[in-house]
Amino acid sequence: MEITINIEDPMPLFTQLVEQIKSAVISDKVRPGDPLPSIRQLANDLELNSKTIAKAYKLLERDLVIQSKGYRGTFVHPDAIVNSKMDLNADVLAQLDNAISACKTAGVTDSEIRIAFSSAMNSKNN
Hints:
Number of strands: 3
Strand content: 5-15%
Radius of gyration: 18 Å
Order of helices and strands: HEHHEEHHH
Helix content: 55-70%
Oligomer: single chain
Structural class: mainly alpha
C-alpha cells in the first residue's frame, strides 16, 4: 500500500490518510488481518507529525477499519471492507439536515438554530 499526502490539498492531512487507507481496503491492496505501520513509522515515512497519524488511526479504529492490538501493533479489522464503505460524515449530515428542517418547519430562526447547536456542542453532558 502506497500512501501519498498532498500538503497543497485543502483536505486535512489526517483525512487524506483515512481516505487512502479505506481506499486500499476496498481495492484489496490491504486485507483484513494485515499489519499496518506504527504511528511513529508512518509519521517518519510521510514526514508528518505523529499526532496527525494518531488522529487518523483513531478515526479508523472508531470506524472499525483498523484495530490496535497493543504492543503487537495495528492491523486491518476483520470487517474493514464493509466498514470502509460506510460514510459516518454523510450520516451525521443527513441527521442534522433533518433536525434543521424540523426546526424551520416549527418556525425556529437560523440564529436560534445556531445558538441551540452551539449550546448542544458545548454542553458538559456530551
